[in-house]
Amino acid sequence: SLCIMRRDTCGQRVVSVPAQHCRTTALCNQVCNDERQFVCGSDNKLYRNECEMKRNNCG
């Protein structure tokens, strides 16, 4: 709960964020293979595959 989080992190400047943030940042640590199935991201950059695109745009 929010109350327990505040107690456990007292003075550490920790703030709550939406749960989907935790699921998203998990992609940052994802290991991608070298498969070449190029994907163009909405940032107009070309990525080797979808996994690489998600990993580079996580968080």
TrEMBL record:
Residue ranges occupied by any Kazal-like domain in the UniProt entry: 23-59
Pfam families: Kazal_2
CDD domains xref list: KAZAL_FS
UniProt protein name: Kazal-like domain-containing protein
Organism from which the protein derives: Bracon brevicornis
